[in-house]
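User: I'm new to structure prediction. If I give you an amino acid sequence, what do you actually give back? Let's try with this one:
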Amino acid sequence: MEFISKVLFWVANSLLIPDIIILLILLGRSLMLLGSFYNQYMTKRKNDNLLLDKIKTISSGTIDDLRNSLPVHDNSLFIKYLRDILNTSPSEAYSDFMLSNFENEADKDVSLSKMLTKMGPILGLVGTLIAMSPALVGLSTGDIGGMAYNMQVVFATTVVGLVISSVGIITLQFKQRWYARDVNNLDYISRVLVGNKL
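Assistant: Good question. You get back a string of structure tokens that encode the predicted 3D arrangement of the chain. For your 198 residues, that looks like this:
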């Protein structure tokens, strides 16, 4: 039994370095996500100011006005699909197809935020529990220096994991709300286009 316990302890301790490396990679990825999220927010805000009133008042006479108002160099997901719907012969089947594709791409965009939300606390807790064991051993043997070092690792992995998770949660909440509104707008525009064709 003692041999099995030692093997288990050795395996658990060997996971600390990979856990810390993955935490650092995810921290870097979450900082990159914050930068792209800010860029997406500014683009979304500009597009909403430009197009939202035109979308609300769209009719058969204002479709060309909306089409001409689309930004030329904007490749955001919403603008890309809106341009496609406006420039294609309207049909209900094609509109449903495009909305499904938009939802799939939107889900792919929020998948990183979902992953960070879940993996940050898990990896932080793994690092905390692994480093806690040597800290307790150091406390029992009177090695205060070793215990203090291991407690630093304990707190650092917890904090980094929570920071990663908080970035994931914040970006996930905003993006889900944005994409829900975009789906609603695209659905409304496609229904108006199909209705005008009939």
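You can read the tokens as a compact description of the fold. Here is one thing that stands out. The CA atoms of residues 99 and 133 lie 52 Å apart.
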